[in-house]
Amino acid sequence: MKSFQTRPNELLGFLYEESSEPQPGYEEICEGLLRALIALIQRLVQPDHSREHDSEHLAVRIKEYLDQHYLKHLKLRDIAAEFHMNPYYLSHVFKRQYDDSPIHYILLRRMGEAKRLLTDTDMKVADIAHVLGYQNANYFTILFTKTMGESPTQYKRKEQAERVKLRET
Question: Residues in domain HTH araC/xylS-type (predicted)?
């Protein structure tokens, strides 16, 4: 498909010629040229919504991938390789859609799963850390505390106390 970058100039030239030396039918020709110019200008000025839709769709696909693989030790370049793209572009697309980086999203996803396991199972913190892909339970505890504002043990005790309180009421 030929680029329209030089076409507006050509149309303006035709418009000038037609209006400079009026001949029968010049008004219809000028009107058609003006409509074509307006359409080309609108095309140049309006954003390409299909690109926006494509990047939104890509961000959703990335999130789905992260939700399926959050237990793996993924690096940004691993995720980007899966989508055959530049890591920085992938991060930009994801952040624009979800206001978060893919790696931070994985961390929050893991911490959400940790909270569920802490409240819904009798698993020990070390076991939960292992299930979530952390080889070092202390490191997991540090991450959990930094992310959630309390240690896994504190969180579990607080949630158990809340459940007991709810049952009593």
Answer: 60-158
Per residue in 28-71, pLDDT tens? 888 888 888 788 777 777 665 555 568 899 999 999 999 999 99
CA distances from residue 87 to 57, 91, 110, 118 in whole angstroms, order as listed: 17, 6, 21, 33
Instruction: With a cut of 80, say whether residue 161 has pLDDT above it.
Output: yes
- Contact (CB, 8 A) for 131 and 117: yes
Domain 106-168, CATH class in plain words? mainly alpha
In this structure, are residues 11 and 37 in contact, taking their beta carbons and an 8 Å threshold? yes
Instruction: Tell me which residue of 41, 148, 49, 56 sits closest to 94, measured CA to CA.
Output: 56
Structure token pair of residue 136: 């070092």
